[in-house]
Amino acid sequence: MTEITKEIVAEHGLSESEYEEVLKILGREPNLTELGIFSVMWSEHCSYKSSKKWLKTLPTEAPWVICGPGENAGVVDIGDGQAAIFKMESHNHPSYIEPYQGAATGVGGIMRDVFTMGARPIANMNALRFGHPDHPKTRHLVSGVVAGISGYGNCMGVPTVGGETNFHESYDGNILVNAMTVGLADADNIFYSAAAGIGNPVVYVGSKTGRDGIHGATMASAEFDDDSEEKRPTVQVGDPFTEKLLLEACLELMATDAIVAIQDMGAAGLTSSSFEMADKGGVGIQLDLDQVPMREVGMTPYEIMLSESQERMLMILKPGREEEAKAIFHKWELDFAVIGKVTDTGRMVLTMKGEVAADLPVAPLADAAPEYDRPWVKTNPPAPLMSKDVKAPEDLKEVLVKLMGSPAIASRRWIWEQYDHMVMGDTIQRPGGDAAVVRVHGTQKALAITTDCTPRYCFADPKSGGAQAVAETWRNLTATGAKPLAITDCMNFGNPERPEIMGQFVGCIEGMREACLELDYPVISGNVSLYNETNGTGIFPTPAIGGVGLLKDASQMMTLAFKGEGQSIFVVGETRGEMGQSIYLKEIEGREEGAPPAVNLAEERKNGDFVRSIIEQRVATAVHDISDGGFLVALSEMALAGNVGAEITLLTDNELHGFCFGEDQARYIVTSNSQDVEKITNEAKKADVSLQLVGTTGHNGLKINDVLSISLEEIKEVHSNWLPNLMSAPK
User: Fold this and answer.
1) 330 is known as an active-site residue
2) Which of 64, 322, 383, 723 is positioned for an S-S bond with 414, CB 3.0–4.6 A?
3) CB atoms within 10 A of CB 2
4) 57-115 residue pLDDT tens
5) What span, in angstroms and rounded, lies between the C-alpha atoms of 160 and 389?
6) Nearest partner of 569 among 694, 389, 449, 711, judged by Cα
7) Which residue in 12, 45, 624, 657 is the catalytic one?
8) C-alpha–C-alpha distance, residues 114 and 85, integer Å
9) Contact 621, 672 (CB under 8 A)
């Protein structure tokens, strides 16, 4: 028997005070298996010990929310007896160490979270952050991550319909891979994870257990150093073909009434799934580890409980239904094993080879998981930076060309063309727009889905940046005509033990909370990923937000492409020329300075409701929100999408470069046919919304006053080629 030394405790990521709590709970020293279980259950990745104090402040309820945070995924009612189920999760550390498998298993894990709830996945999204394009690892990481996402999603037959990819040097040593899945279920047939029924069988289904992924949760709860490559064995290996079988088998069994509870074996594998099910149900569980299907010989209880082998589920079945369930899983060529039973002891008892391998109280272990109120310091935002404070460019055309071909703005087509975004036949707005739109099969409805965050805003002013991230997803859904319903979040930050990092987290949560309340847009699921730093240097704070909205009539869906010549172009929302933290400032002047653009949530709500109303009245012909790069970048994207130019006449009190490149919030570009101009103008007045008629569509390029004239071909060339050129350049 292994002696538990201070060194072994430290290797398991437990502090001295946490280990003292373990001794108090047990009244004795733990054995190695028990120590391993405490280690993963109390890891940052599983227990949220640094973040849960603040996560509790987020709004999670609305009349349409069926299930908020706490389950495998969140659930919202979309009418007609149907529900949308969705969540976003991180797989950052594994994807840096082994990009293909790290990203692939991230996609597999988030899909399991969704179909565990009884939903068929209908769409995948992602939010990716890589280091500087010139960093020696960037191309390798981009290539591996994109291949991993496409490899898993494409094999599963679930469309990857969109996402976002950013490059910034703060991610040089720690990339972010956040995966999101949306599924569809019957609202009256949602499956939950609370174990129940004393004596009910505990059943293991899916793939066999191996030694891959052991300590994955612990590794994800520590920062990187120069030896991080040695952690490669803690990255799981995925098999999407097995997961496809598991999906179909689970949904087939879910069509019966045999399942009492079900839980994905994700981070911390059999440990977290069994403890979470027992804790939520207020029961005990007894497991015979000899019955666990294993693919390697000589596995110990420690290895079995901590393995993060993929494509596995844990179920509680009604008594007497084992053979029925077994027949289904064997039909799909999957392992099925009764490995234990529900007890009334309130304890987790593990046996192997006739001996007790672990005997732990469930509730104290779960309930006594540390909850820290870590010290934090507020980030003091810099002063605003307006266009009058920024030197006007000599050549507007040169600036536009540089921005459209920059890492921040250039087309991501090279990425999304590797994803099968049309499989299942219900994708009605493809990648490249404000939000993806997927038809609810067999109905007139559709779901709009987006992921967004502007980390440079969050770094400069976490509270404003957190609010802006939520507001931008709300705008992007609105731009398609969808009513925003709810968000999922993926909170990616550095080391929470540093007060300035904890202050970033607290600030972002405060901003998100205010935005969710003002926009009636609750948080229904999410994930926290901390310790994203290398050798003491943290990433930009990145609270990635995944938003889902509902189009009751898919025929009303709006896109950003100009639809033809001679249409009127409006800007909705006020432009003040805010240049702080703008793409213009970074790419043209080489500066990352100033406060991010102010977020006025009442204005966001008012302007967004107005845009949605004119889409519903079918008087808008194209809509695009104005974000990175400002008005002129958004205009260029609309022109490229429709292959139609525009002539703009700007009469502005602000400097021209402020109007063109300022990143003021709560703004959209909207086009309409000439006969609807008066109606849109009147509707804006009624709604007290700022509306400016700035030009008309047409021509073969973009013209602004007498200071800019550029062909669409020139813009398209730089916009389309940057990423393919990066990825094909000789090493």
Assistant:
1) no
2) 723
3) 10
4) 999 999 999 999 999 999 999 999 999 999 999 999 999 999 999 999 999 999 999 99
5) 42
6) 694
7) 45
8) 6
9) yes
What is the strand order of the sheet 176-186 is part of? 65-67, 74-79, 82-90, 176-186, 120-130, 160-167
User: Across residues 373-402, what is the average pLDDT?
Assistant: 95
pLDDT digits (tens, 9 = 90+) for 128-155: 999 999 999 999 999 999 999 999 999 9
Among 44-53, 181-190, 410-419, 673-682, the range scoring the smallest mean pLDDT is 44-53
The answer to whether 637 and 624 have CB atoms below 8 angstroms apart is: yes
Neighbours of 3 (CB within 10 A): 7
Residues 221-267: tens digit of each pLDDT:
456 555 544 544 567 788 999 999 999 999 999 999 999 999 999 87
**Interacting residues of 320 by C-beta distance below 8 A, sequence separation 6+:** none
Which SS3 state, helix, strand or coil, does residue 134 take? coil
Per domain, the residue ranges of the chain are: 61-187+425-557, 558-731
Active site residue 12: no
Q: Which residues pair with 226 in a beta bridge?
A: none
- 315 pairs with which residues across the strands? 203, 262
Q: How far is CA 357 from CA 36, 172, 352, in A?
A: 12, 43, 6
Percent of the chain with pLDDT over 70: 97
Rounded to whole angstroms, what are the CA distances from 150 to 101, 102, 132, 417? 11, 12, 23, 9
Q: At what angle do helices 16-26 and 32-41 cross, to 10 degrees?
A: 120
Check: CB of residue 338 under 8 Å from CB of residue 201.
yes
Composition of the chain by helix, strand, coil, percent to 5: 40, 25, 35
In tens, the pLDDT along 477-527 reads 999 999 999 999 999 999 999 999 999 999 999 999 999 999 999 999 999
Taking residues 645-656, what's their average pLDDT?
83
What Rg do the C-alpha atoms of the chain give, in angstroms?
A: 26
- For residue 65, what is the enclosing H or E element? strand 65-67
User: SS3 of 497, please?
Assistant: coil
Q: State the chain's maximal CA–CA distance in angstroms.
A: 86
DSSP string, 232-289: GGGS----HHHHHHHHHHHHHHHTTT-EEEEEE--TTHHHHHHHHHHHHHT-EEEEEG
Minimal CA–CA distance to 49: which of 511, 533, 497, 513? 497
- Asked if the domains 61-187+425-557 and 558-731 are classified in one and the same CATH topology, the answer is no
Characterize 131-169 residue by residue with b for buried, 16 or more Cβ atoms within 10 angstroms of its Cβ, and e for exposed: bebebeebbebbebbbebbbbbbbbbebbbbbbbbbbbe
Per DSSP bridges, beta strands 701-704 and 708-711 are antiparallel
**CATH T-level assignment (fold) for domain 558-731:** Phosphoribosyl-aminoimidazole Synthetase; Chain A, domain 2 (3.90.650)
CA distance 181 to 175: 20
| Fold of the domain spanning 61-187+425-557 | 60s Ribosomal Protein L30; Chain: A; (3.30.1330)
Q: What beta strand segments (E) does 552-700 contain? A: 568-572, 622-625, 646-648, 668-672, 691-697
What's the token pair of residue 80?
A: 């007609």
**Rounded mean pLDDT of the chain?**
94
What's the confidence (pLDDT) of residue 232? 43
- As given in the structure block, the two tokens for residue 459 are 């770094």
Residue 217 in this model has a pLDDT that exceeds 60 = no
- Active-site hit among 91, 93, 421, 719: 91
| Residue length of the chain | 731
Would you state the structure tokens that stand for residue 208, as one six-digit string?
A: 């066999």
Separation between Cα atoms, residue 188 and residue 191, nearest integer Å: 9
Please name the amino acid found at residue 518. Answer: E
